[in-house]
Amino acid sequence: MCTQTKAAALMANIPQADIDPSGVFKYVLIRVHSREEGDDSEVDIVRGYGWAEYHADIYDKVSEELEKDGHLDCECIGGGRIKHDAQAKKIHVYGYSMGFGRANHAVTTAKLKARYPGYDVTWDNEGY
Length: 128
Known about the structure:
Elements: H1 6-12, E1 17-19, E2 23-34, E3 42-49, H2 55-67, E4 72-85, E5 90-94, H3 105-115, E6 120-123
Parallel strand pairs: 1-3, 5-6
Antiparallel strand pairs: 2-3, 2-4, 4-5
């Protein structure tokens, strides 16, 4: 019988991407992994919000929430910006974070395409 750890069960329920419904805003790519011994499961998640003045503001809020029960650990593996035009069904990922460096925009784009089917989701490494 296969048993799933508490951390793996928690990670399975974390939305892969959560961003503001429209606008231009900062985003971070966060790697969430288990703190449980013998469990090396992990998942990368995208979070982007217009309220954040800094990329670290997003990371701090999200990681605090995910780590509160002690089963999960988070690390920010980069950041950038997202331009979300809901009316045109377009999302563009670009730029980098001064504090965390450039996220792998290809990973971010794949997660956004899964979250927003029917959207034109693009990326490049230009801009800040």
